[in-house]
Predict the 3D structure of the following.
Amino acid sequence: MTEGWADDLESLSSKIRDQAVALPPAKIPVSRLLPRLRAARQDLLESFAAASGFPMADVQRLWTDMMDFLGHAPALAPIRASRVIPASGQLRWSATLRREPWGRCLICLPANAPVPLAVVLPLLFAAAGNTVVIAASARTRAVALRLANLVQTQFPERITLWGGSVRAVIQALLQAGTLDLLYFLGSSGPFESISAAAARSGVTLFYEGQGNGVLIAGYDLTGSTDIHRVASLVVESKVFCNGEMCSSPNVLAVPEACLADYQTAIVEAVAALDRRPSIPHRAAAILDRVLAEGAGSLAVPPGEEGTGPMFVSVTSAEVAMDHELFAPAAFLLPYSDPQRLVTQIAQHRFNLQLTVMTREAALFESILAGTRHARYCWNMFPVDQDLRLPWGNYGKSGYSPLEEIATKVFRPVLVEAGTGLPGPGGHP
């Protein structure tokens, strides 16, 4: 096994089996890490842009967000904060809610965000006292592992890099019984198989990622200025990182009475773009199938050679929300009854993010009350996300808790202290 890298699954399983379940917390080595990142910045950005196909400006924006987070990392350092519940009144004992390291963790990174995740996740998990294996999606694996390696050199005993298949390492480590936590970031496609395998192995699963976000334009936005603003925002989000971020809306729901106005505004917003990212074959095949089955019609056709953004108008919420695109394309869904739309969204299995554009606080509150999403964006650019704020996924599409990222590195533990042993030292 090369230092810091696993060469084969058997030696990797053996190494993890021999590691301590939990290690003492460590300081986040920002002062040593930042110069290394800055020195490698241009080469890493060019490699990421080339592998992903994302524009350099978008890649630079992700890098800036990552460096901003790291600049605040000492203040956000994961600590084992505890909350004490004292014995009082009717309570016969006290309790402490503690946070302890998970132990042996496998983190699987997605193709669309090695910046910032290949740095932030191993850094926080290792500093908290976990031992971590990092695996990455094949498309951007090289740059992801180069970034993770910069962190690994700061925690050589706590981080191991796996350069092979994500699917293979998940299967091997779950079967070997050497994991305490599996943290998977990617599309929702393999969720059922991964969650079933984790459950059989008794391993806690954090699962994050979908391409089915919805943006609802409120019924109060009927003026030309509002309609054009919403259209521009959606088009911009479908172009940023080629529409491949899970927070990029997959569905734009608009009032039926304004459908033609929104379609015109989207066409104008697309025409004003200075770039038209290509629609990947997988997403193009989905859209072609929807059109061929008569379930939709072209609202904004693709540009030359299958470039986006492309919008397909559908009347069925099920059709709109049953497909993950991860592409510069989206479904345009007219609605006449906001409450019915909310009900349809709530019945869908995906619950990552819902964006609402409205000045009506009552409308936003009714949508919030009627749905069960992890994140709501109200009158904001939907792909903006500050790592210092809570984020995550939960419910029908995954198990990752909605909380600030630096707290995910711990498992909550309840310690109850009774009076079974009287005298000093009789309880913790």
The mean pLDDT is 89. The first strand starts at residue 5 and ends at 6. The two ends are 42 Å apart (CA to CA).
